[in-house]
Automatic annotation (TrEMBL):
EC number: 3.1.11.2
Cofactor(s) needed for function: Mg(2+)
Segments forming domain Endonuclease/exonuclease/phosphatase: 10-254
Pfam families reported in the protein's UniProt record: Exo_endo_phos
UniProt-recorded name of the protein: Exodeoxyribonuclease-3
Amino acid sequence: MARKKTLKLATFNVNGIGTRLPNLLEWLAHETPDIVALQELKATDEAFPAAEIEAAGYGAIWHGQRAWNGVALLGRGVEPVESRRGLPGDLDDAQSRYIEAAVHGIIVGALYLPNGNPQPGPKFDYKLAWMQRLQRHAKTLVDLEHPAALVGDFNVIPTDNDVYDAKAWKKDALIQPEVRQAYFDLLAQGWTDALAEVFGDEQVFTFWDHFRQHAERDRGLRIDHLLLNPVLAGGLESVGVDRWVRLQPRASDHAPTWVELRR
DNA sequence: ATGGCTTGCACCGCAAGA
């Protein structure tokens, strides 16, 4: 088999890997991403469908949790080499929201950042604290001479251009100024927001809620992000969102979002 | 300005998502 000239790195909030497994497998077969970060497994470690994922041609590591959260990393034809599970900085944090591994020569931090609603309140405080911890850990990755990426559901609407109607989301945790500031502080370490880089002012969404046919009408948010360190950003070839997955029956409310990188 | 929908869990309603 001829070696592809590019490598496709994707992130997908599946919103329950139990119910969404057929959608996930169809997407994997159709788009053949090389590296995949999954969020919101909503399944215990025991319930993760490892056999089906393996049969689809992917090695996997996962960090599950009953009912909520849960993250995984898949490698097409390879086993991810795990370097970390759980974000450092709070030993009492029991939520499964971070897993990191070397996959196809890239160190990938896969994250499911807390939603933070309702705000203000303890959940919003947890979100801000989590972003501070992420920023500290990200600093150890951004300056590596090795390719590194931070990808996942960030639950951050970076700018008003990343939402169909900023006014309708004004009170939401995803759009608050301190959340945006924390996101841009993270980028300022030297990360490239790949979709923002390529799309510029053109609107692109990765999430559409279940109300008022927002998916069909393309009224969404851009909250799933792929951040590349400088070494990796030099190889950025293209980006995209597989919106067709969101329009399938019984779909997740997120669509797979990806970058293609020169090898 | 509000509510609109979907899922998991476990039990027919509630919490959580974004």
